[in-house]
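WP5 quarterly update. Target: Reverse transcriptase domain-containing protein. Source organism: Rotaria socialis. Length: 574 aa.
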Amino acid sequence: MNQYSELLEGLLRQHYLTPLSYADRMRAQREFQLVKSIRRKAQRAKLIIRVCDKGGGLHIGNKIDYERKAAKYRDDTKAYQELSYNPLMEIFTNVTNAINVLKNDKQLNLKNYNRLMPKRDDVRLSYMYFNPKPHKVHSGTPLRPIMNTIKAVTRPISDFLDELIRPIFDQYNKDNTIIDGVNLIKRLEQYATDGHLKESTQFCTFDINNLYTMLPQDESIRILGDFLRHYVGERIQGISITTIQKLAEIVLKENAFVYDHKFYKQIIGGAMGSPFTLTLANIFMWHWEKRWVRRQKSKNEIYGRYIDDVFFTSNEPIEVVQQLLKDANGWHPNIKLESNIGGSVPFLDILLPNNNGVLHTSVYHKPSAEPYVVPFISDHPRYIFQNIIQTALVRAIRYSSTFEAFNHERRAIRLMLLFNGYPTTYIDKQFRKIFVNYITSNSILPLIKNEDEFFQLRKEHMKQPTAEHSQVEARIAQFEQNNTDKIVEELIPMKSSTTNKRKTKNVPDKVIIHYTHEKRFTTMKKDMHTIFEKAFEGYGLEAVRLIVGHRNSPNSERELIHKRPPLKYLTLKQ
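Structure tokens (predicted):
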């Protein structure tokens, strides 16, 4: 191991001490001065820089205006109670005591106990910040609250509950869940094929205001128990539903944070940034939307929800739909809707017009969206640029129901890439990879000229699972495998215990190392593999696989945006 450490240190010194080229050195100095200048101007003018909610890009706003909107948000929701002290120690004590009680009552086994118990030296108090919503400029650019809970005392419990429960929701509520744009398009195409899409069909959308923040805590925990008992019974992987509800209560009620040097406790809803909050919100909405789902099914209409955004179809008079939405606004005091009804509506990143009973779909760009992607001059691995182009082009293929719509989006993609410094030859090369079976090798431009060929290409891509769909299926498969493993452990406890002990003695089958990517480190991965093989040759570690990954260099967001409060507010005092 000492030899490997010495070889690795020598390799890193060699790479990092290699002088930069003159062009790179001048660029680094120029960009450093630019960042310093932006920071100074923002500080002098009392401006605040944040990432835009949805769509990326940076938003510069007046700090006083931000604070006014943040205060209004707290006042409108009544979800936060200001504290006169730092609550971190109190939360740590409450959580550790609660987990100890569950273990002593034999509600948690040792494995889960060790996973859920927070470590004193690692925990941090959560902190809140706000991201602006420039796509809602007509509403005065409201703010979305985000809570950083990565090192929160309850984060291990939140991760655990999310991993345990989200696959159950994915599996049993898939008919009413919109996974992504492709999923909705497929449902609409089937709806049209079945003869339900007519000239008078209305497409309707609504979003729920502040869903995460407005979840009623006790009611949500009760609904969680109802949901789990309805679909899986009294236990999940050996854990009782009552225990799961107690853990959920810890996540919701032991939630405090710091914002602008003040401490707050959340008394309604959950932290937007805590993994389990999303799952709990979905389950709460499963209960809320039951009557709507039954109504839509009885009329052969679509109802689908993507977190807090809902899409549904209707062939009833618009007055009936408006009354239905008005009634739904009164179903629960915490759930308020903002709706949009028409023959053409945007939903997620799709534009959905009903063209006289014919379904047309295309990519939708919010009016506030900027034509910005990672600039080609940026110091990122090459595959990042390839993925940007291919992802945008495949989305255009899948979303475009007409050849005309596809060509319009293809031209927009090319212009966006040129605007961000991508060379024409590089763009054409990536386009060719997508169109390879539909253009001739001697074609000057990578274009599909035949409408029938485009529809064949679209058909192929619509058959392939999207990344989001694959993630959902993987979660469900992992949950089913875990259930199977648990049953086997209970049936053959001795054999399982012996196997586990034997596994812990085995040498790890892989070693993972990360380094910060720089364009000049072209041989870094190869060199790391070489010294690994050299250092451990003859030690019987040939089966150990070295995985060399990388992290990206700090970008403009990390250089210009500072959200974290001073550590004195976040850590436990020694």
